[in-house]
Write a structure and sequence with these properties.
By secondary structure, the protein is an alpha/beta fold. The chain is built from three helices and seven strands; from the N terminus they run αβαβββαβββ. A hairpin with an 8-residue loop joins strand 6 and strand 7.
Length: 175
Amino acid sequence: MEHRMGISFLLLIIGVCWAQHNPNTLPGRTSIVHLFEWRWADIALECERYLAPNGFGGVQISPPNENVVIAHSSQPWWERYQPVSYKLCTRSGNETEFRDMVTRCNNIGVYIYVDAVINHMCGANVGAGNHATCGSYFNTKTKDFPAVPYSDWDFNDGKCKSGSGDIENYHDIFQ
């Protein structure tokens, strides 16, 4: 019995290692670079001029979906993680530029990996209005995101194990 468990464990480890060895890139290309906050047109050029000729297999990009525009001179990186809709429109470019980037990079063997934000919408403290990268209207207080469309029915707020029912302590795994 112990012998079979040992073999099963060995096969499990080999399977995990083999899965890690397959990075979903073209043969011979195993490196992926993260071009966070780059414009789509600049990434396309980088694929053509540097990444493909130097054997890179992919580019991870910032979230491409419409997000809130935070009223701050520095335009914080985290505003990209405050989605309002799934329209492909950010400070990196529009949908046409996004499609062009993906096509140009893929045509020369450099795949695009999207940092997709699909598990939440922008925070409640953002308020309401159309201060988003595509100008879509939203209201965080009423959970109204008509460009998706999402409404209050699509959210699970108030179900955390806390006094308020919402996340109060991000270090508490139960919240």
